[in-house]
Specification:
Blueprint: E1 2-5, E2 14-18, E3 20-21, E4 30-39, E5 42-50, E6 66-73, E7 78-81, E8 86-87, E9 95-101, E10 109-114, H1 123-126, E11 138-143, E12 146-151, E13 159-167, E14 170-174, E15 184-189, E16 196-202, E17 208-214, E18 219-226, E19 238-242, E20 249-255, E21 258-263, E22 268-273, E23 282-287, E24 291-297
Parallel strand pairs: 3-7
Antiparallel strand pairs: 1-2, 4-5, 5-6, 6-7, 6-8, 9-10, 10-11, 11-12, 13-14, 13-24, 15-20, 15-24, 16-17, 16-23, 17-18, 18-19, 20-21, 21-22
């Protein structure tokens, strides 16, 4: 990772040196897409190492995207981490994230990642000449030493008609009648930290895309093995995330080929590509005392872009 410096934005860039990370000699066999950003009084160093070996439930993608928080000594070209690096996203398809500063929210940055992974195949879109997409914009903050990732506040404006609502496990509104919309915003609150589950895009009793939480183990599981379209299965189709304080909330954004899950108000994020077939149209949910709302998303783009 190289540092360049200039006193003007458009020209005059000179190599300052190679950025070293104190306590680390290398990160796999290659590093891609480094990015550094000041967030509050801390520095955030992001990069995508290739060649990390899986460790239990961690680093399950072929190539991963990780980050350090810490301090930056520009003169010595050294990053001093506060602790070990961690994964930015615990899902299946996330890589090459980049950040930018912004002036709307204090002590925060904005991030977007590539919703794919190098050397993966995505047959439904590859056949049509597409090469991935970008994740939703995330607002990054560092709170009590932890990196938090939340959907950009403007995403709240996309919440349209309420299609389904349950309060304390009791249904109070249901327009869906058990049918899963192709796009949805799902907001789940779990005040009792109870076991619960969501099954999206089921087909005649099959599991579909499953999001489940076990209160006994405090583990959130995301399982896409029940979908008809399977891809990149050699890197696993199940992700398990241990939650130190249990599951209190989920904010899920479902688009036509993607699912993004924000866990516990941004404590963890799980991103997955998904290609449901027309017959995969059923939604199922279970939980003793959860509050659940499913919104119809409003359009975020109003132009007439045509391929």
């Amino acid at each position: 990772m190289l540092l360049f410096e200039s006193y003007t934005l458009e020209s005059g860039w000179q190599l300052k040196g190679e950025l070293k990370v104190r306590g680390y000699e290398d990160f796999g066999f290659m590093v891609e897409c480094p990015c550094i950003e000041k967030v509050g009084d801390k520095w955030l160093l992001l990069f995508s190492p290739q060649g990390l070996e899986p460790e239990g439930d961690l680093y399950q993608q072929k190539y991963n995207n990780v980050y350090f928080t810490g301090d930056l000594d520009v003169d010595k070209c050294e990053f001093i981490p506060d602790g070990p690096f961690a994964e930015l996203d615990r899902g299946f398809d996330f890589y090459a994230a980049q950040t930018a500063c912004q002036d709307h929210i204090e002590n925060a940055a904005v991030l977007a990642g590539w919703f794919a992974c190098p050397d993966y195949v995505y047959p439904p879109t590859d056949e049509e000449g597409w090469a991935g997409l970008l994740t939703l914009p995330r607002i990054l903050t560092i709170e009590d030493g932890k990196l938090m990732q939340r959907p950009a506040p403007a995403m709240k404006e996309l919440r349209g008609e309420v299609l389904f609502e349950a309060k304390q496990g009791t249904i109070v509104k249901d327009v869906l009648r058990g049918l899963m919309p192709r796009t949805a915003i799902i907001d789940l609150k779990n005040p009792d930290l109870a076991s619960c589950e969501l099954s999206l895009f089921s087909d005649n009793g099959k599991r579909g895309f499953e999001i489940s939480y076990d209160r006994n183990t405090k583990v959130l599981t995301v399982d896409r093995s029940g979908m008809i379209n399977q891809f990149n299965t050699e890197y696993g189709n199940v992700r398990r995330i241990a939650l130190e304080n249990g599951l209190s909330s989920l904010e899920v954004y479902v688009d036509r080929s993607s699912v993004e899950i924000f866990v516990n108000d941004g404590e963890k994020v799980v991103s997955s590509r998904n290609f449901p077939e027309p017959g995969e149209r059923i939604i199922r949910m279970g939980g003793s005392n959860i509050d659940l709302v499913i919104y119809k998303p409003e359009k975020s783009v109003e132009d007439d872009f045509v391929i």
